[in-house]
Design goal:
The protein is of the alpha/beta class and 356 residues long. The protein is built from nine helices and 17 strands.
């Protein structure tokens, strides 16, 4: 009988436990997916290294591209576009499956669903149906938003769609970049490089990227940044005749990045925060500075299904303008997951992937 394999996370200091089980018998509304590739997200590393807590045992990994294997008898066979799904289709899906009825689902925050099911973040139950990307198969639950992918899209470009790319697509909604805008991106990891690329395609006047690492600064130039600089080097006097940036997208997740963005955006500017996803020290904000500058600060965590669609459309239509596939520098088999985790902590490796 066919088997399903997974690497179980047991805690920050525990070795990975490799498990095998029969392919699950689906409930009527579930879908079985074969994991084709899963990239290791920075938030996976935060959990693995103990920077934030997570349930154990669990199957981590949520930047997944997969192939449909089987449908439960009454499972939905349409993606969010209304396209028919069938076995063999290559897909990505939203990181949070939502109920559609709770307070947050009814108030435009389905990613914060009160009964939300988050892939790569769930405790493994008695059924042993894995629901993360560090496994050969993943079971999709009701409320999962699926997008069928074009066959032309590479696995390496597709895997981050369900986290990094879609999250930046959500940030672009709030950034509301106009054609004459000067845009600042803070940080040039996967989020920041994607932000540079998406901002560039909005047609702004300029896209500047602040990044401390020289290698990543050079990458930012390849992803649409028109100006790159080390932290502390940009001056307001040089931006929009001394007014400052119209929009800043903070992707570094650091207090220093936020504080620099506050100084560099103009009066009436917008700052979208996407990088801070684990607990940190409080930032020494001067609230009066925010008030007098009429600033708008907007946090973005995860995304809606239309943001995932935007991400897929962007990668399909404009992804080839940038070397996204090169960002996945190494691919490891599931048995070598520990080596992949080590490689993912090297700064020059923007993404490392697992191919179960």
């Amino acid at each position: 009988m066919p088997k399903s394999n997974a690497a179980l996370f047991l805690g920050p200091n525990a070795p990975w436990q490799f498990a095998s089980a029969d392919l699950p018998t689906l409930t009527p509304d579930e879908i079985l997916v074969k994991v084709l590739l899963c990239t290791i997200c920075g938030s996976d590393l935060h959990t693995i290294l103990g920077r934030r807590s997570g349930p154990v045992p669990s199957v981590l990994g949520h930047e997944i591209v997969g192939e449909i294997v089987e449908f439960g008898s009454s499972a939905s066979r349409e993606d969010v576009r209304g396209k028919t799904l069938q076995a063999g289709d290559r897909i990505v899906w939203g990181i949070v499956a939502n109920c559609g009825h709770c307070f947050f689902c009814q108030n435009d925050l389905p990613q914060k669903c009160e009964r939300g099911f988050k892939y790569g973040h769930q405790q493994v139950g008695e059924r042993k149906n894995w629901q993360g990307g560090f496994a050969s198969h993943c079971v999709l639950v009701p409320g999962t938003k699926i997008v069928r992918l074009p066959t032309s899209l590479s696995l390496k470009s597709a895997a981050p769609l369900s986290c990094a790319t879609a999250t930046i697509a959500a940030s672009m909604r709030f950034a509301d970049i106009a054609g004459n805008a000067d845009v600042l991106v803070v940080g040039a990891g996967m989020l920041g490089l994607t932000a540079c690329a998406m901002a560039n395609k909005q047609g702004p006047w300029s896209v500047a990227c602040i990044e401390k690492d020289e290698y990543r600064r050079q990458l930012a130039m390849r992803f649409g940044a028109t100006v790159v600089a080390q932290p502390g080097r940009l001056q307001v006097s040089d931006i929009k005749n001394g007014y400052g940036f119209d929009v800043a997208i903070e992707c570094s997740g650091t207090n220093a990045g936020l504080l620099e963005a506050i100084e560099l955006v103009r009066v009436g500017g917008r700052i979208v925060l996407v990088g801070a996803v684990f607990p940190s020290e409080p930032a020494p904000l001067i609230v009066e500075r925010i008030v007098r500058k009429h600033l708008t600060l907007h946090g973005v965590h995860n995304y809606r299904s239309d943001d995932l669609l935007t991400a897929v459309d962007f990668m399909e239509r404009q992804g080839n303008s940038f070397p996204f596939e090169e960002l996945v520098s190494h691919v490891y088999p599931l048995a070598e997951l520990a080596d992949g985790i080590t490689a993912a902590q090297v700064g020059s490796n923007i993404r490392v992937a697992i191919a179960p």
